[in-house]
Amino acid sequence: MPLWVENAAMPPPSTQALPSRVDVLVIGAGYTGLSAARETAAAGRATLVLDAGGIGAGCSSRNGGQVAYSIKPSFSTLKSKFGADTAFGICREGLDAVAYLRSLAAQQLDCGWREDGCFFGAHTARHFRRMARDAENQPRGLEQRISVVPKAQQSGEIASDFYHGGCVYPDDASVDPARLLLSLLRLAQGSGASVVDCCAVNAIRSGRDGFEALTPRGIVHARQVLLATNGYSGPLSPWHRRRVIPIGSYQIATEPLGGDRVRALIPRGRNIVDSRRVVVYFRPSADGERIVFGGRAALAEKDPLACVRRLRQMMGRIFPQLKSVRVSHAWAGWVAYTFDTLPHLGQHDGMYYCMGYCGQGVPLAPYFGKRIGQQMLGLAEGRTALDGLPFPSRPYYHGNPWFLAPSVFAYRLIDAIGL
Ligand SMILES: Cc1cc2nc3c(=O)[nH]c(=O)nc-3n(C[C@H](O)[C@H](O)[C@H](O)COP(=O)(O)OP(=O)(O)OC[C@H]3O[C@@H](n4cnc5c(N)ncnc54)[C@H](O)[C@@H]3O)c2cc1C
């Protein structure tokens, strides 16, 4: 079980009957679905959110809680693909997403928001030089505060010699993922949305005035449907399944180490990520008593418990001081990669969708969830720079990422060589 869920007052499974007709049906009760539902319900549309598992059973209760600028492709990559204006707009969405969550946290969310920043560790001296260069040459209008930390000063950030220096992003933040989820749930319900868990939508058919959703608790007729299923997009919509790549991300939490010991390891309490292709990410727990450590722990997907040994080894290489500590929690979830590493939102065959955050949906999912909700209402504020971009798939890909294990193997080799 995720550490965060153990400490949160998750609602008991619901038993309520479903309405037979709604204006808006949202499939998936994670950050995306709840944020969208809040918008449509607040505008007076009868809104129902269904989740196959518990509320937030997908990634939204089990992530690392790190909040950072989260558009993966660089401005120059996007510019060569889409032109300067669209590239700029897409990057701005990434900045706006963080700003949106920050303002929500300040006004309406009880999510344990902490603005302690992030240390981005360089895996090699070459990576450090590239990071320092990039920090100096940020595209105008897209600047973030960044300070370069040479290896000689690294001990102020992390009690480890593992990295070759790095960069600090002082405005990055962290949240308690489950508290964020519960806050978004309260906002959606407070706006009038009904949220029902343990009720999968097994099939969707086009009906006379919208859609019919087939569930174990009966058929729901909906004028509009939003697919907010991200890395859990199953056979319900084969078109979407061909466009998102579910990838397992694995996490462990150490036993309580005590605040002093955790501060000795990460003196400023920052999130830590690094420049490897197979990324690791870690941070102090929300109460500052433990280290929560995550990454891609296996070539092929595995039970999270089977990954504990590997994650401990990965953590022990960075913090040899932690080699003998006990691990109290281990869990995993499916993030949704896309073939162009961009999120996607819009409409296909009349059904709305919003997904594909490539493992960085803590800021992106609430923000784009709100935007897609606004689009469903026909509001101009809902427009984004991602609208209308092609949502690519690949031949022979139908939802089973057969290429993942060889790719992770190749990336590990690249990391080991230090390219
Ligand atoms: C281990 C881990 C660590 C992460 N760390 C970070 C981090 O530090 N920072 C960051 O930015 N991001 C992180 N992420 C990613 C982030 O959590 C996700 O991008 C985000 O939560 C996605 O939210 P969502 O609402 O779109 O999808 P989800 O929360 O995954 O919700 C999708 C929901 O759809 C439901 N569903 C699927 N099919 C059906 C159906 N047929 N009927 C009904 N319901 C259905 C599922 O049950 C699920 O609850 C991490 C993810 C994991 C797994």
Question: What is this entry, summarized?
Answer:
By secondary structure, this protein is of the alpha/beta class. It has helices spanning 3-6, 31-42, 75-82, 84-107, 125-136, 177-190, 238-241, 259-265, 308-318, 361-376, 404-417; strands at residues 21-27, 47-50, 66-67, 118-121, 147-149, 166-169, 173-174, 194-196, 203-207, 210-215, 218-227, 245-254, 271-274, 280-284, 291-295, 327-337, 344-348, 351-355. The strands form 3 sheets. Strands 1, 2, 8, 9, 10, 11, 17 and 18 form an 8-stranded mixed sheet that branches.
Q: Which structural traits does this protein have?
A:
eight-stranded mixed sheet, 18 strands, 11 helices
What can you see in these coordinates?
The chain is α/β, with parallel strands linked by helices. It contains eleven helices and 18 strands. The strands form three sheets. Strands 1, 2, 8, 9, 10, 11, 17 and 18 form an eight-stranded mixed sheet that branches. An eight-stranded mixed sheet has the order 5-6-4-13-14-15-12-16, sandwiched between helices. The chain binds flavin-adenine dinucleotide. Flavin-adenine dinucleotide (FAD) is lined by residues 27-33, 50-53, 56-60, 62-66, 70, 200-201, 228-232, 234, 236, 249, 251, 281, 294, 333, 335, 355, 357, 359-363, 365.
* Main beta-sheet strand count, sense and barrel state: 8 strands, mixed
Q: What is the chain-wise order of helices and strands?
A: HEHEEHHEHEEEHEEEEHEHEEEHEEEHH
Shape: globular
Q: What is the number of beta strands?
A: 18
Bound molecules: flavin-adenine dinucleotide
Distance between the termini: 36 Å
Strand content: 15-25%
Structural class: alpha/beta
Mean of all residue-level pLDDT scores:
95
Radius of gyration: 21 Å
Task: Return residue spans where pLDDT drops below 50 for at least 5 consecutive residues.
Answer: none
How many helices? 11
Please give the oligomerization state of what you see. Answer: single chain
Helix content: 25-40%
